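Input C-alpha cells:
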C-alpha cells in the first residue's frame, strides 16, 4: 500500500478517535492535529521501517596500531512506547563491550538504540534486540547493556507511582563468566 494512502487512512482513524473521546476534530486547535500526529508517528515509530535500520561502521581491531582489549562504554538516553498502553517509557542506557576483531564506530550504539526504541516495545525485548544486533555485526568478546527507564503506564495511570525506574540488564560472553569484568563495567558507568 502506498504511503499516501496509509497516511490518509491513519488521519481518518485519528479523526474518529477524536470524535469518540468527545472532541470536535474541526475545532480550531485540532484541525491539523491528525496530520501532525501522522507526521510524528512516522518519526517515533521508524523502527518498523527496515530501510532505516542503522548500518554499523566497524574498524579492524589493531589496524591503527593499537589493539583494544579493554572495556569500551557508551551511555545515552532513549525514548520508546509501551506496547501494552501506547504511552512513552524513557531513560538511560549504559553499554559496554570488549572488542575482538572489530571495533565499533563511535555513534553506532546510539543509532542502534534509537532504531529499536522507535516502535511499540517492552523494556526487556528492547535490550535483547539491541544486544542481538550489535553482537551479530561486531562479534565481540563480551557485551553488556543496562537500561533504566521510567514508564508512564506506571506513573500517569494505574498505580500512579512517580519516578519509579525499572532496570534491566543483559550480559553476553566474557561479562557472563567474569564477575570482575562485569563489576568493572558497573564502576565505569557510575554517575
Amino acid at each position: 500500500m502506498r504511503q499516501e494512502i496509509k497516511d490518509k487512512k491513519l488521519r481518518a482513524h485519528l479523526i474518529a478517535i477524536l470524535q469518540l473521546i468527545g472532541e470536535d476534530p474541526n475545532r480550531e486547535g485540532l484541525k491539523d492535529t491528525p496530520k501532525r500526529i501522522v507526521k510524528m508517528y512516522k518519526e517515533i515509530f521508524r523502527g518498523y521501517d527496515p530501510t532505516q535500520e542503522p548500518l554499523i561502521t566497524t574498524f579492524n581491531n589493531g589496524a591503527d596500531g593499537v589493539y583494544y582489549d579493554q572495556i569500551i562504554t557508551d551511555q545515552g538516553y532513549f525514548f520508546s512506547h509501551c506496547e501494552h498502553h501506547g504511552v512513552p517509557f524513557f531513560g538511560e542506557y549504559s553499554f559496554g563491550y570488549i572488542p575482538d576483531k572489530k571495533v565499533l564506530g563511535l555513534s553506532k550504539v546510539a543509532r542502534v538504540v534509537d532504531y529499536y526504541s522507535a516502535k511499540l516495545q517492552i523494556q526487556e525485548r528492547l535490550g535483547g534486540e539491541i544486544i542481538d544486533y550489535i553482537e551479530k555485526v561486531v562479534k565481540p568478546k563480551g557485551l553488556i547493556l543496562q537500561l533504566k527507564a521510567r514508564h508512564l503506564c506506571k506513573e500517569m495511570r494505574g498505580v500512579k507511582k512517580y519516578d519509579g525506574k525499572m532496570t534491566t540488564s543483559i550480559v553476553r560472553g566474557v561479562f557472563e563468566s567474569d564477575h570482575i569484568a562485569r563489576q568493572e563495567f558497573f564502576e565505569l558507568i557510575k554517575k
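DSSP finds seven helices and seven strands in the chain. Residues 63 and 181 are 25 Å apart (CA to CA).
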